[in-house]
From TrEMBL:
Residues 207-349 form the AAA+ ATPase domain. The keyword Hydrolase applies. The lineage of its organism: Eukaryota, Viridiplantae, Streptophyta, Embryophyta, Tracheophyta. InterPro entries: AAA+_ATPase, AAA_N_dom, At3g28540-like_C, ATPase_AAA_core, Mitochondrial_chaperone_BCS1, P-loop_NTPase. It holds the Pfam family AAA_assoc. This is AAA+ ATPase domain-containing protein.
């Protein structure tokens, strides 16, 4: 990496900032993350600082400026330092040592109108201090604020880049209509995972846990993922494997994911690379699995990735596969260590209905219609999503429940 930097630096003699130069290297996210974790070896940090001196703006009175763009090379690659500064600044009274300014592009017609940056100005004598301590401190404060304020993010990769926004899904384990014992088992497993961070370290295992969520559509797989994220306070990375065209695509997607995250592979059965290999297959499929001459990622590479996830800096990983067809998936993907807990989400059963009655209609405690519906749900196959749709149609709790009773009667007739 350092030798690459040596080669590239001279060609950026007029680049406006350290961060802009930094962004031109494909490894910048790794570097940034490492910087954030205070793990950059001191020699490399000093090297970067000394080599990049030329890229600061010179100002009168020995002041220099550091420009922190909102995005890296395109609008799909957000800069975490910018986000950190944005959250951090309102909490600080203007310092006499450092001046922050938001530099917005006011020309709406310009091609670059989406570009904005924070410009940090400080005495040039503080240059090393800013890079070595101040920026990492801003990032750390931001991380602490995120977990305190529970600003969770959901990142989604539908093409060649991750996009992200705030995870505002309200689902929690209190609002999920699940069988109470299953719910308790999941919560206990998550809490054990959270508590055992040191244990994983001691036995030399990466701090990670895998969950397979399977069941028909509308049974709460996405809601459960949101509840897990809200419980653990982990960000979510949702990777659509149909957009992954090669092993290197897969590696690139993975490289940009930070720890303390939930990595979601939705509808995993939609990818034939992960189908059960016990079925006879063609030579070309075998080649695919080896990742040779294939346009798609290989199962072996996905397995290697999952097995090789390391928890740097004590950060944990939760990997979630969702599927409507568990039977289609290669058992190699599902074994403990990869998918530690298989969670079956199914049709709404009576015991879970009071949670929906409470969420949607505010009904707590005994209600004769709730009791009647509980009994009916034991004899029908209706998803929580369908029940939710019925409950939301009527503001009056009694009318809503009566309408649901009618609907369930109809369902029971049809299935007899
Ligand atoms: N177990 C549940 N408890 C509470 N609400 C639920 C549950 N399952 C589904 N819902 C409601 O139904 C809607 C759809 O659920 P969700 O998207 O979580 O299902 P899913 O299994 O992920 O569906 P799909 O496979 O189609 O993506 C949600 O808005 C949620 O409010």
């Amino acid at each position: 990496m350092v030798s690459n930097m040596r080669k590239l630096l001279p060609s950026f003699a007029s680049a406006s900032s350290w961060f802009e130069v930094y962004a031109t290297f494909s490894t910048f996210t790794m570097l940034l993350r490492t910087a954030f974790n205070d793990l950059i070896p001191h020699q490399i940090r000093s090297f970067l600082v000394s080599k990049l001196e030329a890229f600061f703006h010179s100002q009168p009175n020995n002041q220099i400026s550091l420009r922190i763009n909102e995005f890296w090379h395109d609008r799909y690659n957000g800069n975490e330092v910018f986000l950190a500064a944005q959250e951090y600044l309102p909490t600080r009274i203007t310092s006499t040592k450092f001046t922050w300014k938001l530099d917005e592009n006011s020309d709406e017609n310009s091609r670059d109108s989406w570009k904005q940056a924070f410009v940090l100005t400080f005495d040039e004598r503080n240059r090393e201090r800013v890079l070595d301590r101040y920026i990492p401190h801003v990032l750390k404060t931001y991380e602490a604020m995120k977990s305190e304020k529970r600003i969770l993010e959901i990142h989604s990769r539908r093409s060649y880049a991750w996009t992200y926004w705030e995870l505002s899904h309200p689902a929690t384990f209190d609002t999920l209509a699940l069988d109470p014992e299953l719910k308790q088992a999941v919560v206990d497993d998550l809490d054990r995972f959270l508590k055992r961070k040191e244990f994983y370290k001691k036995v030399g295992k990466p701090w990670k846990r895998g969950y397979l969520l399977y069941g028909p559509p509308g049974t709460g797989k996405s809601s459960l993922i949101a509840a897990i994220a809200n419980h653990l306070k982990f960000d979510v990375y949702d990777l659509d494997l149909s957009c992954i065209n090669s092993d290197s695509d897969l590696m690139e997607a993975m490289r940009d994911i930070s720890g303390s995250s939930i990595l979601v592979f939705e509808d995993i059965d939609c990818n034939k690379e992960v189908h059960d290999r016990s079925k006879p297959k063609q030579d070309s499929d075998i080649e695919k699995e080896r990742g040779e001459g294939s346009g798609k990622f290989s199962l072996s590479n996905l397995l290697n990735f999952i097995d090789g996830l390391r928890s740097g800096g004590g950060e944990g990983w939760v990997i979630i596969f969702t599927t409507n067809h568990k039977e289609k998936i290669d058992p190699a993907l599902l074994r403990p260590g990869r998918m530690d807990m298989h969670i079956h989400l199914s049709f709404l059963r009576g015991r879970a209905f009071p949670i929906m009655a409470s969420n949607y209609l505010g009904i707590e405690g005994h209600h004769p219609l709730v009791e009647e519906i509980k009994g009916m749900l034991e004899k029908t196959q209706v998803t929580p999503a369908v029940v939710g749709e019925h409950l939301i149609r009527n503001e009056d709790p009694d009318l809503a429940l009566e309408a649901l009773v009618e609907f369930l009667k109809q369902q029971m007739k049809e299935t007899q």
